[in-house]
Amino acid sequence: MTILVALDLSEPAERVLDAVKRVVPVGAEVYVVHVAEPDPEFVGWKTGPGVVRDQIAEGFRRERHAVEGWAATLSAAGFDAHGLTVQGPTVDTVLQEAERLEAELIVVGSHGHGAAYDLAIGSISAGVIRKAKVPVLVVPVR
């Protein structure tokens, strides 16, 4: 069984990992995926001087380190866990990775901001649920 766990860098990510440990069979292949912001130059925004590019690269390294730590936590609990940090639009990238990895389940957290927030800003979990071709487990993290 292959599981994709999509995490942001918020503190409640630990709650999503705890749910995975309780629900997913030990030994399952689990990919902890974090979608980082797209490369600014890719989306047409010039990053300016080298110091700005260095700051962006350092942020990406910190994100990758966090994801690798989460995967190590799941590995220590008996899962075949891997960490992936990819750049792109969040919902589409999560779904593309799920398809590429042939995931049978996607696990996401929901911050539960409410309808007004979701209407104005959008909800990653709602977007994944609407477009996913496999079951989605939503873990409330509030």
Topology:
Elements: E1 2-6, H1 13-23, E2 29-36, H2 50-76, E3 80-87, H3 90-100, E4 105-110, H4 115-120, H5 124-131, E5 136-140
Parallel strand pairs: 1-2, 1-4, 2-3, 4-5
Helix pairs in contact: 3-5
Describe this structure in words.
By secondary structure, the protein is of the alpha/beta class. It has one domain: Rossmann fold (3-Layer(aba) Sandwich). The protein has a five-stranded parallel beta sheet with strand order 3-2-1-4-5, with helices on both faces. Helix 3 crosses helix 5. The longest helix is centred in the middle third of the chain and has 27 residues. The two termini are 28 Å apart. About 5% of the residues have low confidence.
